[in-house]
Model the fold of this input.
Amino acid sequence: MATNDSREKNSPNRSITASKQKDFSEWYVQVLLKSDFIDYTAVSGCIAFRPSAYFVWEKVRDYVDAKFKEDGIENVYFPTLIPEHLLQKEKEHVEGFTPEVAWVTQTGDTKLEERLAVRPTSEAIMYENLSKWIRSWRDLPMRLNQWNNVLRWEFKHPTPFLRTREFLWNEGHSAFASKEEAEAELPRIMGIYEDALKDTFAIFGIQGRKTQKEKFAGAAASFSFEHLMPDGKAIQGPDFHHDEQRFSKAFEISFTGRDERADYIYQNTYAISSREIGVMVATHSDDKGLVLPPNVAKVQIVIVPIYNDKTREEVVKHAADLEKRLASSARILLDSRDEYSPGWKFNEWELKGVPLRIEIGAREIAERSVTVCTRYNSTKEKVQEESLINGIRERLESIQKEMYNNSKRSILSKVRKVLTYEELKLAVEEGFFAQAPWCGDEGCEDRIKDETGAKATNMPLDSQQDAERKSCVLCSRPAHHIVNFARSH
Amino acid sequence: MATNDSREKNSPNRSITASKQKDFSEWYVQVLLKSDFIDYTAVSGCIAFRPSAYFVWEKVRDYVDAKFKEDGIENVYFPTLIPEHLLQKEKEHVEGFTPEVAWVTQTGDTKLEERLAVRPTSEAIMYENLSKWIRSWRDLPMRLNQWNNVLRWEFKHPTPFLRTREFLWNEGHSAFASKEEAEAELPRIMGIYEDALKDTFAIFGIQGRKTQKEKFAGAAASFSFEHLMPDGKAIQGPDFHHDEQRFSKAFEISFTGRDERADYIYQNTYAISSREIGVMVATHSDDKGLVLPPNVAKVQIVIVPIYNDKTREEVVKHAADLEKRLASSARILLDSRDEYSPGWKFNEWELKGVPLRIEIGAREIAERSVTVCTRYNSTKEKVQEESLINGIRERLESIQKEMYNNSKRSILSKVRKVLTYEELKLAVEEGFFAQAPWCGDEGCEDRIKDETGAKATNMPLDSQQDAERKSCVLCSRPAHHIVNFARSH
Done:
């Protein structure tokens, strides 16, 4: 049966040759490509999501979307192109995005009179319409959301998911009649994202407020989840921004209040993006390949029947039976291809990150048992078939939970409280979040970044009381904030 | 309570002032805008889908996507930008699309060395990767799909949904080892689209094969659903294309067969787009505003309590109770706003197309009844409350079915069989599909189009046997096909 292609698939170039510990960047890309999760494309910095990767994104989108809808948020769709004059309405916003904008300047053979930006984010195109849609307190709150694709033409070295020129995301845009109502949305949205990180990607992030220097272009205040990658560099997760009245003044979005007085609306924006897929892959995968959390795995369980010519019929029939019995509880695949050996299949499905593998042969059938191999912790155990079937949902749920707990433990173990600049430097050097008191002066923040390469990732919400009576890690003036400094992607 | 804005909302400019019969174009746009279904944007030819419109699209996407998944189709995501040299690989394809392409020529301040097309469709960017992914018969069939947005910069007068420069769609791309397998996919996909048209939009389309002149740019054969709009012009619905080996030869997508021989793959593509939302609106709506089929209506039922100061508490409480009892079976809204009168609310929800309105007042409560108004046929009936609740799903289902049947009856009544050129001209003039025998010569097709303005919409699958022993409607040579000619959007 060996043809050219099957020999190629069995060749060593299918297995991961780089080590997660020693060469994270090379390992990461090998895992993504060799597991058929993604591919590079003809456009530099833009990837193709193959079925297993897009499935993850669909699960995340559906999860978050259901929670958004429960919370009263409505989905809309706005054009992908934004006329240049609109992008220029909010000063910080345009400065933040213009260097990365992909410009449409021509359609067919016709040169456009005004350039059109392929959306890097949609404030500018949406808020022009909001100013028509919102007239009165009766129209508020108006909480809109889009699931779409955006382009940001970064010129740094692109990395699949983590820094791509096109990515998928949600962009939430809420309008309120008062600052208080706008502020009350923060914990609701951050709560939804926290749950999504846990129940889909099985990853933990440190919640905190961004410094003014690191906030979103145009926002008044930004909040984020921050993750730590295996190479000791931080990466930002989902975020939330209070825009206050910055955009509503720039775009003239005013309303008549119950008191008949006119005021500008208060706005928030928030996003979770396909970047998280990369964080998930980097967090859970290993030197054998991809490791997917059960809740987002396209195939949750693969059954590999083990047989010889004599036992083939009985074993495959039994395996098909087992597949049927599990199919209502899990996304399951029976790999009964004769042209590949069981060993080849073990490697293949490990490489592709399937959470559970069930091995079944004549001996197992006789014992009414199966062998169950768990991908994320490489354990192997013999289980009675009935007990496997009855407990399959709980087994998958507990894998999801354990993977999340591992992520949480791992990140929290990498937060080191420091009080001196020497301690900060050492922590950063060793790939930790250096959690340090800070005076609030951007001069100190800048100097720390220049000298150590570490930026202020965020100011953890639950640690701010620690700033009391402490001194800035750099200048020794009284501290007003606790900041997690780290090198970052 | 009257403020500026509520006066404005009560003003006549909220109601439809054009007639569907007399001025379809003006009526159509008024219905879309005044019902808050869509809005124009700062980009000419691109619309904003407001929540009620985007909800329709989500329902369609979810419906079709579930059927695709059942059938084994997998979702992927490819970049939105396509390098120019890839677009040029298939000759007919590039000729068909280049005049409409929006070109990215610049990113940030940097002029690109090669122009990038914002995808008008994704063959060119996908097939470059397919040629790497497909090596062997084991990799086939590979049936991939994307849900995304595409840009086609048409220069004709844009019309919301029906002719927009950006639209949402699915693009299915399947690869097979043989022509027979590729052909077997046609009825499966057309069946899914047929069901979707019925169960979501409640619209009927005539299935048929496109002529060579009217087929998709690059395809070997195209199939479509054709609708008829209230103005007597046809418009194309979902379509399906056999590409045979045209693209696989251009993009070098070959595989090793079971017999160890190399061959090019056989491909199909297929799509349903947000254009159908416009067809749905045009088909069902009336001079009072939008009419939405229950299955895609964001709000399926609105309850309007009717009360005075004395009865308010009792009536609103009872209405809230009814809302709760219906909430598990339908998407329901209780409009108990004091600042608007019942009459204002009736107009408002009629304008917005809510399928059912329930009116409830003190008298109805005493009788344990409610008044039910059905939007699509403007009927009003008194129903016992318990029977309403028990039968609510069936009631909504039967509305969906009746709306579909109306659409089907209406389109079929507009198909007129013609045998002479005079009959064809008259039928076209009167806004019919002129169903005519045709010799198959593109010269005749061209002359009919030039002289009557009618193009070959498609060749209905179930009428081809009628061509036997008939003569071409134009040249009188033996007919080989039956074609539905019509003027079109």
